[in-house]
Specification:
Number of helices: 3
Number of strands: 5
Protein name: HMA domain-containing protein
Distance between the termini: 23 Å
Helix content: 25-40%
Structural class: alpha+beta
Number of domains: 1
Largest sheet: 5 strands, antiparallel
Pfam family, one: HMA
Shape: globular
Strand order of the largest sheet: 1-3-4-2-5
CATH architecture: 2-Layer Sandwich
GO molecular function, one term: metal ion binding
Strand content: 25-35%
Keywords: Metal-binding
Radius of gyration: 13 Å
CATH topology: Alpha-Beta Plaits
Organism: Marchantia polymorpha subsp. ruderalis
């Protein structure tokens, strides 16, 4: 049975020193990340939660899909999110539709 988890960051945790606009639109970035266990999932989550602008993270280990929702600012670009995940999961790639 596939397990899916979602992590919502608090408003203060998602913001850093350069305060984001309060009504900034949100976008999602989808990744395919090979994960086999809860440790893999936690490692991916830890890398993503430190990125500026990340609001929510959804991880489905069964389908190997990670969805990151965040503010549409320069710091939360797909290549930045992918590079962060590749620090712990080298075979991560963008999700193909």
């Amino acid at each position: 049975m596939a397990r899916m988890t979602m992590h919502i960051l608090s408003r203060n945790a998602a913001r850093t020193h350069s305060m984001l606009p309060p009504l900034s639109p949100k976008k999602s970035i989808e990744l395919k990340v090979p994960m086999c266990c809860e440790v893999c999932e936690e490692n991916v989550r830890e890398e993503l939660t430190v990125l500026e602008g990340v609001k929510e993270i959804s991880i489905d280990v069964g389908t190997q899909k990670v969805i990151v929702w965040g503010h549409c600012d320069v710091r939360l670009e797909p290549y930045v999110v992918l590079r962060a995940v590749k620090k712990v999961k080298h075979r991560a790639e963008m999700w193909r539709k």
